Amino acid sequence: MKFGGTSVATTDRIRRAAKRVGVEVAKGYDVIVIVSAMAGKTNELVGYVEETSPLFDAREYDAVVSSGENITAGLMALTLQEMDVPARSWQGWQVPLMTTSQHSSARIVDIPTDNITRKFGEGMRVAVVAGFQGISPEGRITTLGRGGSDTTAVAFAAAFDAERCDIYTDVDGVYTTDPRICDKARKLDRIAFEEMLELASLGAKVLQTRSVELAMRYNVKLRVLSSFEEQSDEAGTLVCDEEEIMELNVVSGVAHSRDEAKMTLISVADRPGIAAAIFTPLSEAGVNVDMIVQNISEEGRTDMTFSCPTNQVGRAEQALKKAKDSGDINFHDLVADTDVCKVSVVGIGMRSHTGVAAKMFKVLSDEGINIKVITTSEIKISVLIDRKYMELAVQALHDAFDLEKA
Amino acid sequence: MKFGGTSVATTDRIRRAAKRVGVEVAKGYDVIVIVSAMAGKTNELVGYVEETSPLFDAREYDAVVSSGENITAGLMALTLQEMDVPARSWQGWQVPLMTTSQHSSARIVDIPTDNITRKFGEGMRVAVVAGFQGISPEGRITTLGRGGSDTTAVAFAAAFDAERCDIYTDVDGVYTTDPRICDKARKLDRIAFEEMLELASLGAKVLQTRSVELAMRYNVKLRVLSSFEEQSDEAGTLVCDEEEIMELNVVSGVAHSRDEAKMTLISVADRPGIAAAIFTPLSEAGVNVDMIVQNISEEGRTDMTFSCPTNQVGRAEQALKKAKDSGDINFHDLVADTDVCKVSVVGIGMRSHTGVAAKMFKVLSDEGINIKVITTSEIKISVLIDRKYMELAVQALHDAFDLEKA
Question: What are the boundaries of the signal sequence (chains A, B) (predicted)?
Answer without folding.
Answer: none
